[in-house]
Write a structure and sequence with these properties.
The protein has about 400 residues and is α/β, with parallel strands linked by helices. About 35% of the residues lie in helices and about 20% in strands. The longest helix has 21 residues, at about 295-315.
């Protein structure tokens, strides 16, 4: 990749916030904004006309999509998760994938705290009864959250923010994470998941989608929770075995649940949603809206768009989830920057420098960053445009 004077062609799908388009367009790039999530065949064809693509959680960047579009320079996930992209395949093709791990943290944390209060006061059921004309004024089963224990599973960006907000409600916070994490406030890390489940009045899940977290909450884990506790899942739909959760609620072992993510979700707002949890007492079901606030969507749009700009203008890969992370300075006007992605094997840098010398281009700065699979070489050069163009062609051969 080298600098492109007339800008790059960028496709933004799934109604990404227009602030992203505005930011990218101001920098001279051609941006097309679409509201739908294309199926694989349509996406294969669409991407032929673009250099960069931005998606949210529905669009699948499959191996077939990537193989058909190896010219892509970058993929942006305008959300936290990146499991909708074949990351290893993208890496092999030299395509960095960016995401937005921070921008919707507050929105998700606020929803979780709202759901804790709503479950504790049975607000969902009481509201629906009032809508039906039923008047159920009773304190039975309705409790304050102050003094109760919140167990957080996954103490990352969101889990730790939930911890801070919960303490402001007067809750005791314990958490489990697979690695040692510095506790915020008065929260306490426990040794095992079972330890957290056993002592918590509310359990909130904040884990990524990995092989280790898939179906981590089964009938066994639910049975380890306190009788009368509530479960909240705003992380990934694959984490909880839904039929087991439904049974725990029907048997009254659990007093309630709030679920924002599901193993199978509708592909659009026009598709019907079906779940075993529908109609159960004190169960809050929301359509994957944890990060769906206007503030979060705007912040996500800006965060990923800025990652795009840093990469397209300077070659910076800071924030890429599948690439060596490199934060590069702005390129001087009298220089040209070349990016080379190669397999991380001995001798490649020497071969490239030999080719550069052959074409008579002067290297002014050079940096190489690697991981176990790829090498990411950034080279600033002085030379006529024709010389640099010939050099790039020589490296491709």
């Amino acid at each position: 990749m080298a600098n492109k004077q007339n800008g790059f062609r960028i496709l933004l799908l799934e109604a990404i916030h227009p602030g992203a388009k505005d930011l990218l367009a101001r920098e001279g790039h051609t941006v097309q904004l679409e509201s739908h999530s294309p199926k694989e065949a349509e996406l294969v064809t669409m991407l032929q006309n673009f250099d960069v693509v931005g998606i949210r959680s529905k669009t699948q960047i499959t191996e077939k999509v990537l193989q058909a579009n190896p010219h892509l320079l970058a993929v942006g996930c305008f959300c936290i998760g990146t499991d909708q992209v074949k990351l290893d395949q993208a890496k092999r093709l030299g395509i960095p994938v960016f995401n937005a791990p921070y921008s919707n943290t507050r929105s998700v944390a606020e929803l979780v705290l709202a759901e804790i209060v709503a479950l504790s006061r049975q607000l969902g059921d009481r509201s629906m009864m009032a809508h039906r004309g039923e008047w159920m004024k009773s304190a039975v089963g309705s409790r304050e959250v102050r003094g109760k224990t919140l167990g957080i599973v996954g103490y990352g960006h969101i889990g730790s923010q939930v911890s801070v907000l919960a303490e402001s409600f007067g809750m005791r916070v314990v958490y489990f994470d697979v690695i040692k994490k510095l506790p915020l406030g008065n929260s306490q890390q426990l040794e095992t998941l079972e330890d957290v489940l056993r002592v918590s009045d509310f359990v909130s899940l904040h884990v990524p989608d990995t092989a280790q977290t898939k179906q981590m909450i089964t009938e066994r884990e639910l049975s380890q929770m306190k009788k009368g506790a509530c479960l909240i899942n705003a992380s990934r739909g694959s984490v909880v075995v839904i039929p087991a959760l439904a049974e725990a609620l029907k048997s009254n072992h659990l007093a309630g649940a709030a679920v924002d993510v599901f193993p199978v979700e509708p592909s659009s707002n026009n598709e019907k949603f079906v779940s075993e949890l529908q109609g159960l007492k004190n169960v809050i079901l929301t359509p994957h809206i944890g990060g769906s606030t206007e503030e979060a969507q705007e912040a996500i749009g800006i965060e990923v768009a800025q990652s795009f700009l840093g990469f397209l203008k300077n070659g910076s890969t800071r924030g890429a989830v599948n690439f060596p992370n490199v934060d590069l300075p702005i390129l001087h006007d009298n220089s040209q920057r070349m990016i080379n992605v190669h397999q991380n094997v001995p001798g490649v840098l020497g071969e490239i420098n030999s080719i550069v010398s052959k074409f008579g281009v002067n290297i002014t700065a050079q940096g190489l960053s690697t991981d176990s699979n790829v090498g990411y070489l950034v080279m600033d050069m002085e030379g006529r445009a024709e010389e640099v163009s010939n050099l790039v062609a020589g490296l491709k051969t």
